[in-house]
Design goal:
The chain is α+β, with helices and mostly antiparallel strands. Helix content is 25%, strand content 32%. It has 2 domains: 64 residues, Arc Repressor Mutant, subunit A (Orthogonal Bundle); 159 residues, Chorismate lyase-like (Chorismate lyase, 3-Layer(aba) Sandwich), CATH 3.40.1410. The strands form 3 sheets. The chain has a 6-stranded antiparallel β-sheet. Strands 1-2 form a two-stranded antiparallel ribbon. A hairpin with a 5-residue loop joins β8 and β9. The relative contact order is 0.12.
């Protein structure tokens, strides 16, 4: 019997960590199908409920994904993005060796109002372009994105091919607007029913709400974007310089 100081390891935890090790070591590769819950139950001598709990933990962590009627599979590694660089979705996907494309869900001219007018520093009622796109990498939906731009700066933008071409290409090359900096925020969210349908995940899955305002070199905001990103497929990082110890007043 374990001593009073020993804490027994739950069986589902052992299954979860065994599977995690198989994935981390490369013995289970992206796209590989996991043994069925019945087979894992026999292998570990536990109930299917215990197996399911361990597997679902890895699904929530993004290491596995489930396909109804087919089984559970090993996920592709999460795509990383460096937040210290202002890059387009197209550029990021090409950097990862993936084929980007988009499905335009909405593209129209509307009057600016509320937070959109505030973030673009426009008076309420001024014309803006509202563009909603579902962004894909190798045919897999990753991001549901809404972008707002001042219409007066990009008057013919809606006539461009915004499904296969980079929006930033048109902004910088076609219209000659230089994007010098951006303010971007991220916060965790729960994906709702509509977002889940577009992103091919279950409602309630973890996601990231991304908000970005891009500025020209004279500080004028020219783009405001809100996007829901799949938490199981993407992660973001930022590199920081090392801490520098300040000198004290004596100069030492």
């Amino acid at each position: 019997m374990p001593s009073r100081d020993e804490v027994p390891v739950p069986l589902y935890y052992r299954i979860r960590e065994d599977l995690r090790e198989l994935i981390d070591s490369g013995q289970l590769k992206p796209g590989d199908q996991l043994s069925s819950e019945r087979e894992l139950s026999k292998q570990y001598g536990v109930s299917s409920i215990t197996v399911k709990r361990g597997v679902l933990d890895l699904v929530r962590d993004g290491l596995l994904y489930r396909v109804p009627g087919k089984g559970t599979f090993v996920s592709q590694p999460k795509m990383e993005r460096d937040l210290s660089r202002l890059t387009s979705f197209t550029e990021e996907m090409l950097h990862h060796g993936l084929k980007p494309n988009s499905r335009v869900l909405e593209a129209r001219i509307i009057p600016a109002s509320g937070s959109v007018a505030k973030n673009l520093d426009l008076p309420p009622g001024e014309k803006i372009i509202a563009l909603e796109r579902l962004r894909f990498a190798n045919g897999e939906p990753l991001m549901l994105e809404k972008t707002f731009l001042p219409h007066r700066l990009f008057p013919d933008l809606l006539s461009e091919d915004l499904a296969t071409q980079s929006l930033y290409h048109f902004i910088t090359v076609r219209y000659g607007v230089s994007l010098a900096k951006a303010r971007e925020t991220l916060e965790p969210v729960i994906i709702n029913d509509k977002e889940a349908h577009n992103l091919a995940v279950e409602a309630g899955a973890p996601g990231l709400l991304l908000e970005l305002v891009a500025y020209t070199d004279n500080g004028r905001p020219v783009e405001y974007t809100k996007a829901i990103v799949r938490g199981d497929r993407c992660k973001y990082y930022i590199e920081m310089a090392g801490f520098r110890r300040e000198r004290d007043r004596s100069g030492t």
